[in-house]
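[Q] Does anyone have a clean structure-token version of this?
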Amino acid sequence: QDNGYARLLRRQVEEVFRDNRMIAVCQYNSMPGEDMVLMKHYLRKHNIEVKFVLNEIIRPMLSQSKYKNLLPLFVARNILLVSPETKVKEMLRVLKGVPQINLLGACIDSTILSRQGVENFAKLPSLEASQGQMVGALALLPSQTSSLLQGGSAHLTALLDEHIRRLQAGEMGSPDESAPAQSLGAH
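[A] Here you go.
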């Protein structure tokens, strides 16, 4: 019966790693029950769930998976904070007010991060903001290219207009005739 229960727990842990984009590993130190309920409530508001795990269940599963580099984090009492979304900023904000829970590391979008890596990840702009910046930068390039291409022809047109104006004014054959050609070569 214990073996069947262990298999069930292992399957649940496998589902957690398969179904969530953010899995944070935290050290759990004893805390009053009402504080735990309050923390779970604040995390649930951001679609983050708290999962209590047993090391004897998770360690064998991790050792045979692509997440085996997380094994050193599972030495004491641990909890997992999991979410199908990457709600790193929100998670860190809640954990800041709970000294009994220490973030050790995380797996975000199949990338294993240390505590510092998680904090750095939280400082990154959102994907939508980054995409907007990229679209803006890409849209700027064609307009700059267009203005550069038009700039030469506009300058040439101005020089030719000046040359025609001088010719019409009767200055043909004067030493100033070479000036537009020199200006044209300089640009």
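[Q] Thanks! Anything notable?
[A] Helices lie at 2-19, 33-45, 55-63, 88-96, 115-123, 127-168, 178-186.
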